[in-house]
Amino acid sequence: MQILENISLAEHTTFRIGGPARFFVEIMTEQDLLDALAFAEAGRLPIFVLGGGSNLLVRDSGFDGLILHLAITGKIERDGNLFHVPAGTDWDALVLHLCERGISGMECLAGIPGLVGGSPIQNIGAYGQEVSQTIHAVRAWDRERKEFVSLSRDDCRFAYRESLFNTTHRNHYIVTSATFALDPAAKPNLSYADLRNYFADMANPPTALGVYNAVREIRHGKGMLLVEGEQDCRSAGSFFKNPIVPPQALGPIAAALSIAESTIPRYPAPNGNIKLPAAWLLDQAGFHKSYSLGEAGISSRHTLALINRGRAAYADIAGLRERIVGTIKDRFHITLEQEPVEPVSGA
Prior knowledge:
Uridine Diphospho-n-acetylenolpyruvylglucosamine Reductase, domain 2, 23% strand, 4-stranded mixed β-sheet, MurB_C, 23% helix, UDP-N-acetylmuramate dehydrogenase activity, NADP, alpha+beta, Uridine Diphospho-n-acetylenolpyruvylglucosamine Reductase, domain 1, flavoprotein, cell cycle, 3 domains, Uridine Diphospho-n-acetylenolpyruvylglucosamine Reductase, domain 3
């Protein structure tokens, strides 16, 4: 294990924004993790666990502590319907691995950037699937008990873009592997309208690999597939969560836009609530594709993706974020929540 100093974090995030980490270490094994934590404890350093850097917005001041770059990789091990996967495995590579073997359950999660270790933390989801539907168990280091533990799906307390890892027990666990339960007899998921339309003219039902490729093509068309060199890819993907609100929240929106409540797009959510498309709210408030504010902007292909137009700093993205959040709050009485995580020294 080698501890590095003053490593630029901009090179480790898809936003390509961020100052240096005081200390930085590649975590290749669970023993590396224990050694790095001992180093941090001896120096009384705050730590931050870095995965693929695709859901991250780093301040220009960087991180005055130790960055643990999770890079534990290895063979995907199968035990019947269970698949044990190291946390440093590329997420899309795992989805492709399964789809090439005709196994459905994750095909709609194709093309999502990042690593396996980050998938249960955010409960990643897209096109009708969430990772919580297939998580069987998560192995993690418990920073309080100072031991490795296994957390079941119920233990993880999954909700929309949430788990105990990023809510009640934030910074409590460090994920080192995940086990997924997949049904070999399951059929590909075509619940999302874009996918149904994509395969509408096909005579035979698509395979898992066919859906995988379709999802990647759809994501690319929306600027939501990381392709080196494309400006729209200097981004953290969807910057805002789709707000979950009570039905009464439709009233102020309808009044502000002079439209009927019935015309507002919405989706069912737990406990009688509804989920509103954040992209639609941004469009209605005037934040369209290709909108720009200095060096920050909105993707030319997807309204929810804030982008670094070339030389953006943290303040540029933060300024655009505040303009959007403030406008949506003032016009529609809806408070948007940011998806990307921001490392804060001392956390």
